[in-house]
Amino acid sequence: MDRWYQKTGPQGDVVISTRIRFARNLNDFPFPCKLNPNKKTEVVNLVNGALGALNKDEKIRGLGLRFIDVGELSKSERISLVERHLISPKFIEKTGGRGLISSQDETVSVMINEEDHIRLQVIKEGLNFDESYPLADLIDDILDKKLSFAFDEKLGYLTQCPTNLGTGMRASVMLHLPALRESGKMAQIASSISKLGLVIRGLYGEGSEPKADLYQLSNQVTLGFSEKASIKNLEDIAMQLIMQERSARSEIVKHIEIVDLIHRSYGVLANARLVSESEFMKLISNVRLGVATGEIKNIPLDLIDSLIINVQPAMLEIREGKNLSATHREQLRADLIRQSLTTKNS
Questions:
Q1: Is residue 227 within a helix (H) or strand (E), and if so which, with residue range?
Q2: What is the pLDDT of residues 16-47, one digit of tens each?
Q3: Which of 84, 195, 240, 241 has minimal CB crowding within 10 Å?
Q4: Is the pLDDT of residue 208 over 60?
Q5: Which DSSP string corresponds to 50-114?
């Protein structure tokens, strides 16, 4: 079964993925930061117990939702979940009293006892709120009926962080913006969109730096706006950024220096025997720009997006089934990249 990062969706030349995330807490329980180990286990068991209700729904049961005890995973397995955007980096800082529900195709994940009792996420390829939001909303409704979420008529859904009060929803799109970054406009863009209730961050969300020119654009305000209004605002701004990025791309590829950089980056990745993660992330952005603009032929965007996930450090260790030295990881990364790029372009 293909994962979301192995497919290209609408506006896929610029938009990697769309995510809907709901923060929810159970009635009659303190927030996770105030729970003792026994109560954390009780919350985990209650949410896990709702799996049956989810898998009985005809619109959900095909997803094959399953429970994962995070504490039983190896370090590499936990980190790989972050690399695949199933969980947050914060979620694996402590593993006791935490669980994860995930679908087979990894479009749906539910973190149990992160900052809130439940962090429900649905992620789809491309710009795709038409599929991601209804699915997240359906799962949210089923869980609410089964578990009873903490809700106030004035404040909306009650969350540990006040910035999530109201809808408790964070909608986001992951954008590839190499041309806008190259043009030096990202600081101006970040300032402008903050006035519209949005924020732009790095690859792994809050506190992270952009890698491979990948940015997360998300709503910042959850109180006083409906879920659909927030999504409409985000989608409108995302489309504006998409058009700006495409316009900037059409200009920068007129310069021989940029074209040369694209092809040099492809040449290194298609031939290198050792590739570090940081070098890969820099070069793959240039290659993706080349594929999206037609400078590089016969390489599909979904292959590039899949590589960005599959050659991350923990993913390589999962692939090999053992811990690896830095040099061994670089060698395996180079082998996988070279094999993928040259096979598709032969």
A1: helix 227-252
A2: 999 999 999 999 999 999 999 999 999 999 99
A3: 195
A4: no
A5: THHHHHHSTTTGGG--EEEEGGGS-HHHHHHHHHTTSS-GGGGS--TT-EEEE-TTSSEEEEESS
